[in-house]
Design brief:
- The protein is of the alpha+beta class.
- The protein has one domain.
- It has two helices and eight strands.
- Strands 1, 2, 3, 4, 5, 6, 7 and 8 form an eight-stranded antiparallel β-sheet that branches.
- The longest helix has 29 residues.
Length: 176
Amino acid sequence: MAKQKELNHFHVGFLAVASIFLSVVFFAQTLNLSYSKNEDKGFDQYGYNYNARLFNGLADGVDRVADDKLWGDTTYAKDKLVMKWSDAWHQARFGTLSWNCEAWTDNEWNGKVPEGSGETWHYKIVWVGPQLEDSSCWREGGYPIWGQFEVIFSQGTVANQHFWDTHAYPAGYGGF
């Protein structure tokens, strides 16, 4: 019984950490960022390359403040993060097009780096609209987040234990 309580406590901690990571992903892509097709086509000092629809850098750069912290916390600031997003996501977020079933983001978190958290996560998130589970974009096996999105794939490691949070069917992007 004590072991079961320990696992439940660990699982609660895991869910809290997963929520932080997903919030990083969402808020990083919803910051009031000025984007222009005329901007430099390379990476900025934080790790964003909007023309390539890619972030590749330290988690510290996601909040666009280079202070060795991630929203005031040093725990995950040294972790590496790669975020990729579809043109549909990009156009809905930064352009004039509406959100649609082709809008997705892929996020790979790597804390197994020097001074990192030691955790790893991989998330696939798709737009499904405010109907959530009743949307034609919804996939069986995922879970809703942020009111209009679905996590269709989530797995990672915490304390060297691997977790499958969700694996929707299909777990690929678009054209399902």
